[in-house]
């Protein structure tokens, strides 16, 4: 995984509540065996009309938010089934950070395991960010080390994160890479118990 510390980007304001994993990545796109290539299917049924043309009213199709790496959404983001394809599609699309007032537990944990920083802010803070972001594009700075989000006006929003997950993201470790940090001790144990 790629380490994450400071991410600066225009935010993509997804002003929708209860975005479930089937909306994030619809079931018909789950047949791939790779972990990559899912970004083009992110929010597919919102991004595209039934005839395959772009839905110009959907925020991801707004050129003002092109190349954004920060997604700001409403409460209960990632609810629904536990498909790991949801964070895969978010990351493959280019988002490194998802900010919301609340997340479904399985989705939240899958974000960390796949190199995405999920940030919880208060509902009032999210509504402020979404309101500003929908009015005019807003650049946010997310600092994982300091655990803050800063807007263009210099206002900062603090967030909590489990120290274990923080270290994993700062170092770009998944659970396998974390295990390799103890490779010498594992080898000693295996040698002693051969």
TrEMBL record:
SUPFAM superfamilies: LeuD/IlvD-like (SSF52016)
Domain Aconitase A/isopropylmalate dehydratase small subunit swivel: 2-121
Key words of the record: Amino-acid biosynthesis, Branched-chain amino acid biosynthesis, Leucine biosynthesis, Lyase
InterPro entries (alphabetical): 3-IsopropMal_deHydase_ssu, Aconitase/3IPM_dehydase_swvl, AconitaseA/IPMdHydase_ssu_swvl, IPMI_Swivel, LeuD
Lineage top rank: taxon: Bacteria
UniProt cross-references to Pfam families, sorted A to Z: Aconitase_C
Keyword Lyase: yes
Pathway stated in the Swiss-Prot or TrEMBL entry: Amino-acid biosynthesis; L-leucine biosynthesis; L-leucine from 3-methyl-2-oxobutanoate: step 2/4
Enzymatic reactions: (2R,3S)-3-isopropylmalate = (2S)-2-isopropylmalate
EC numbers for this chain: 4.2.1.33
An example Gene Ontology molecular-function term: 3-isopropylmalate dehydratase activity
Assembly: Heterodimer of LeuC and LeuD.
Family: Belongs to the LeuD family. LeuD type 1 subfamily.
Purpose of the protein: Catalyzes the isomerization between 2-isopropylmalate and 3-isopropylmalate, via the formation of 2-isopropylmaleate.
The protein's name: 3-isopropylmalate dehydratase small subunit
């Amino acid at each position: 995984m790629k380490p994450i510390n400071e991410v600066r980007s225009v935010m993509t304001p997804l002003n929708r509540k209860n975005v479930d994993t089937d909306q994030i990545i619809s079931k018909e796109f789950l047949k791939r065996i790779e972990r990559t290539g899912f970004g083009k299917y992110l929010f597919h049924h919102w991004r595209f009309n039934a005839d395959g043309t772009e839905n110009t009213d959907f925020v991801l199709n707004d050129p003002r938010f092109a190349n954004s790496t920060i997604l700001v959404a409403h409460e209960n983001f990632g609810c629904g089934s536990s498909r790991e394809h949801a964070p895969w599609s978010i990351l493959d699309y280019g988002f490194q950070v998802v900010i919301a007032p609340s997340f479904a537990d399985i989705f939240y944990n899958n974000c960390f395991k796949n190199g995405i920083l999920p940030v919880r802010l208060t509902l009032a803070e999210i509504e402020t960010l979404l309101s500003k972001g929908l009015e005019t594009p807003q650049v946010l700075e997310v600092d994982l080390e300091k655990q803050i989000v800063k807007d263009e006006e210099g206002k900062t929003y603090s967030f909590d994160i489990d120290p274990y997950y923080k270290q994993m993201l700062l170092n770009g470790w998944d659970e396998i890479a974390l295990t390799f940090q103890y490779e010498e001790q594992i080898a000693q144990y295996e040698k002693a118990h051969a």
